[in-house]
Design goal:
This protein is of the alpha/beta class. The protein has helices at residues 5-13, 41-46, 63-76, 87-98, 113-121, 138-144, 167-177, 237-249, 256-265, 269-288, 307-313, 331-340, 386-397, and strands at 80-84, 104-108, 129-133, 149-155, 186-190, 212-216, 230-234, 293-297, 320-325, 345-346, 356-360, 376-380. Strand 2, helix 5 and strand 3 (129-133) form a beta-alpha-beta unit. The chain binds pyridoxal-5'-phosphate.
């Protein structure tokens, strides 16, 4: 018995069953939506997404994305957060929200390369100039600031060369160059390496703070190497509102399943970060003893650039290290080492369970006075046994003459 098939089609869509309320479990529900229903036209006209007091359209937030935004705000020490479909989309949203034709953008010389490419190939077309400063020399930043400077990016440390800048000195330099308020340069930090755990970008001490942070949630918060997402966090309501309008006009949003995957990984973030930090330090100590390695770049090592700045601000240090291989080895010989690795896989990104290795030519990373000589080999430490990772490196390095 029952309804005729054509009636069932409608009933399957307009169904009157409502599950009982008061369901709670450890997981945050996956709320998927483009369309969001309104109770009546009055609610449709009054509902507001900007302050997260209501839902209007999937692009502007669901309970799942609002929940993730709040948790990232807690992680970063911020009050307002936006989610973008990648870390790079978060960076370019910041650029587009605050820069207009005639403005200047300042980037550290060791900046995440796609951020520089956006300035070179997109912002330049819109009449927005950019300049590079040496992140290890605050005087170089001071010299680069002009009345047209509107946005200054910081990164700590450089994501391949891992030199740690004096963040307080850099922020102080921007604040001293031009008074805060309308038209003063905005200080943005790419906080992906620190992940909100190594230091608090919104309280650097001495009353200093950045204005906003970007975090590639793709890395440690996801923890899986299996999704792309970015966040923009701030404590400044006016900056957030500007960002939120640009973000919404650009049509940026994240999928509910990806947001849920990050929510599921966040409780283990501090444990994973600490484990990958400890493992990277053990690998770094081992690599220091190797004759093939001229220098190990890792902020915790005294001969790594910016060690003192790192030590003044942080205890933790993420899971990255870079080997500066002896200059006598040709890039092809280093490639052969990378190809010989078995547990370390070859691939971009970091923060997942699988250890990764990528060779770089130093000239592609730094343009200002070049402090590195040999080929650089960046290692991202995953969650494998450290002894196994060291044994893998040992058998691969043995291929060098
Ligand atoms: C990975 C990364 C990004 C970009 O994140 P995607 O999600 O890959 O676009 C930005 N900055 C840093 C420092 C990164 O490591």
């Amino acid at each position: 018995m029952g309804r005729a098939p054509e009636q069932r089609a409608t009933a399957l869509i307009h169904h009157d069953y409502q599950p009982p309320e008061d369901f709670e479990s450890p997981a945050v529900a996956v709320h998927k939506a483009s369309t969001v229903f309104f109770r009546d036209t009055a609610q449709m006209r009054s509902q507001r997404w900007v302050d997260k007091s209501g839902y209007t359209y999937g692009l502007h937030g669901t309970p799942t994305t609002f929940t993730l935004e709040q948790r990232i705000a807690t992680l970063e020490g911020a009050t307002h957060v936006l989610l973008a479909p990648s870390g790079l989309a978060a960076v370019t949203t910041v650029d587009q929200a605050f820069l207009k034709s005639g403005d200047e953008l300042l980037l550290p010389d060791n900046v995440y390369a796609p951020s520089l490419n956006f300035a070179r190939h997109e912002l330049a077309r819109w009449g927005i100039a950019h300049k590079l400063y040496d992140p290890m020399d605050p005087a170089s930043l001071a010299q680069a600031i002009t009345p047209a400077t509107r946005l200054v990016w910081l990164e700590a440390p450089g994501s391949v060369t891992l030199e740690f800048p004096d963040l307080r000195a850099l922020v102080r330099t921007v604040r001293a160059a031009r008074a805060t308020g309308e038209g003063a340069p905005i200080v943005a930090l790419d906080n992906t390496w620190g992940a909100g755990l190594a230091f608090n970008a919104f309280d650097l001490g001495d009353g200093l703070a950045v204005d906003l942070t970007v975090h590639a949630l793709t890395k440690y918060p996801s923890g899986g190497g299996d999704l792309l997402m970015g966040s923009i966090a701030t404590r400044d309501r006016a900056l957030h509102d500007t960002l939120a309008m640009t973000h919404s006009r650009l049509g940026l949003g994240v999928g509910a399943n990806d947001a849920e995957a990050v929510l599921r990984s966040l409780p283990t973030l501090p444990l994973r970060y600490a484990a990958q930090d400890a493992a990277a330090r053990r690998v770094a100590q081992w690599c220091r003893q190797r004759p093939e390695v001229a220098r190990v770049l890792h902020p915790s090592l005294p001969d790594s650039p910016g060690h003192a700045h790192w030590a003044a601000l942080c205890d933790a240090a993420a899971g990255l290290l870079t080997l500066e291989l002896d200059a006598r080895f040709a890039p092809a010989q280093v490639d052969a080492v990378v190809d010989a690795l078995r547990l370390f896989r070859i691939g971009w990104s970091w923060g997942g369970p699988v250890s990764l290795a990528v060779p770089y030519q130093a000239t592609a990373i730094r343009r200002l006075p070049q402090p590195y000589r040999g080929t650089l080999l960046r290692l991202s430490i995953g969650l494998e046994s450290v002894d196994d990772l060291i044994a893998d490196l040992e058998q691969a390095l043995q291929r060098l003459p």
